[in-house]
Amino acid sequence: MHTGRHFLQIPGPTNVPDRVLRAIDMPTIDHRGPEFGRLGLEVIEGCKAVFRTGNPVIIYPSSGTGAWEAAILNTLSPGDRVLVAETGHFATLWGRMAAKLKLEVETIPGDWRHGADPGEIGARLAEDRGHVIKAVMVVHNETSTGVTSRIPDIRRAIDAARHPALFLVDTISSLGSIDYRHDEWGVDVTVGGSQKGLMLPPGLGFNAVSDKALAAARGNSSRRSYWDWHEIIAANADGYWPYTPATNLLYGLRESLAMLQEEGMDSVFARHDRHAAATRAAIRAWELEILCVDPYAYSSALTAVVMPEGHDADRYREVVLNKFDMSLGTGLAKLKGCVFRIGHLGHFNDLMLMGTLAGVEMGFALAGVPYRKGGVGAAMAVLEHTVPPGKHHMKDEDAA
Ligand SMILES: Cc1ncc(COP(=O)(O)O)c(C=O)c1O
After folding, report:
1. Which of 173, 224, 328, 361 sits between 20 and 30 A of 241, alpha carbons compared?
2. Tell me, what's the pLDDT at 394?
3. Where does substrate bind (predicted)?
4. Helix (H, G, I), strand (E, B) or coil at 169
5. Is 343 in the pocket of ligand 1 (CB under 6 A)?
6. What separation in angstroms does the CA of 45 have from each of 67, 242, 250, 348, 356?
7. For 310, what's the count of Cα atoms within 13 Å in the CB-facing half-sphere?
8. Ligand 1 centroid distance, CA of 91 (Å)
9. Cβ(196)–Cβ(301) under 8 Å?
10. Mutation pick for ligand 1 pocket among 8, 14, 59, 65 (CB with most ligand atoms within 8 Å)
């Protein structure tokens, strides 16, 4: 029996603002009628500001995994070779999907504690003089590890190698939380999902596309129908879809886009940076280890905390859930039991962060995890001493 609100501090799905819930709580309308057409046009246009693109953004009634599949099936043909940077569990899963879809997958191995290495990607592409590699696939924010990859640097590495490979980027846990620019950074397909920085329930997947990606989609032989961009883009011209869209989630999307717009994207990113910095201060004060070992790759959306030797992260998470009604993220795949993840993205503020960190700290004592007291105070000091979002863009000044 719990009173008050549940703390959903996994790195997505995230807390859905009441404003968005109210927007979704409306009668479902005729998805071929004029009112829907206006809604469709509004959200399709609104998404462009979040992806920072002037090109089409395709919205699917799907999870992020569906949008992954759409990116692959529209641009690549069976037998094509792709280069995947193994940053963690989600990069691995995306690569596995590519293999299931009959692509030849070449992986650049990683230790799950660093971002994708632009130098290694560039070197591999430079070797590929025959241009056998058709796409480079990178997860911008690896949700399993709390590590962010440097997308502009990877773009520069692809260009420096004078390689024509398409650049496919997963922003499922960075969109609306961490600075991202589809057009400026020369990304060909950006994959997104609704349930993280966009502050929506799960159920929408996104593909932002470049002209080069659209051209590739015209010339490849992958079997696809539901995921096919061109039919959707054609119907989208009037605000409609070739099938029944997720009407009520689109009401929610209209509201969440308005919220992001009102706050201003730079302020949204600064808010996430600041909460992430405060979280890291807490972890250091507890004398625990942050999984990400490159300060320039710290994720502003989530932080993965390494459990002290001999202590099981999932048992600790269970104590926190039972005692404080707070869900923390589990360790995925090879990190199971070794880390827990604190989500600090989406609809979030200073006091939600302090409540979260208080629950984490009190949980250590209850679960018998060795730690030094004072993490909450250290985080509070960061919040007190940093300029609130909207005034100043803070970026990793705690990196030293
Ligand atoms: C980075 C990343 N990519 C892909 C996915 C898969 O998305 P979904 O679970 O919505 O299918 C997730 C889910 O958490 C993710 O974090």
Report:
1. 173
2. 44
3. 341
4. strand
5. no
6. 19, 18, 12, 25, 35
7. 3
8. 10
9. yes
10. 65
Tell whether ligand 1 has an atom less than 6 A from the beta carbon of residue 75.
no
User: What is the rounded CA–CA span in Å between residue 292 and residue 146?
Assistant: 6
Binding-site positions for substrate read 341
User: Residues 223-257: pLDDT tens digits?
Assistant: 999 999 999 999 999 999 999 999 999 999 999 99
SS3 108: strand
Tokens read off for 105: 């997958």
Contact 189, 169 (CB under 8 A): yes
- Tell me, what's the pLDDT at 397? 46
Joined together, the tokens standing for residue 136 give 């480079």
pTM above 0.85, yes or no: yes
- Could you identify the atom of ligand 1 that is nearest to the CA of residue 174? 1
Nearest atom in ligand 1 to 195's CA: 10
Mean pLDDT computed over every residue of the chain: 96
Q: What is the mean pLDDT of residues 12-21?
A: 98
Domains delineated in the chain: 7-13+264-385 (3.90.1150.10), 18-261 (3.40.640.10)
The token duo for 372 is: 């030094």
HSE-up (13 A, CA, CB side) for residue 115:
21
| Cα(181) to centroid(ligand 1), Å | 19
Query: Closest ligand 1 atom to the C-alpha of 143?
Result: 16
Dist. CA 198–CA 20, nearest whole Å: 10
Cα–Cα distance measured from residue 182 to residue 180, given in angstroms and rounded to the nearest whole number: 7
- CB 176 within 8 Å of CB 268: yes
| Per-residue pLDDT, 220 | 86
The answer on pLDDT for 396 being more than 80 is no
Q: Which residue type occupies 182? A: H
How far apart CA 363 and CA 305 sit, in angstroms, is 14
Return d(Cα 313, Cα 224) in angstroms, integer: 41
Residue 389 scores a pLDDT above 70: no
Q: In the chain, how many H helices and how many E strands?
A: 13, 14
CA distances from 331 to 10, 68, 328 (A): 11, 22, 10
- Report the share of the chain in percent with pLDDT over 70: 97
C-alpha closest to that of 68 among 44, 40, 43, 91: 91
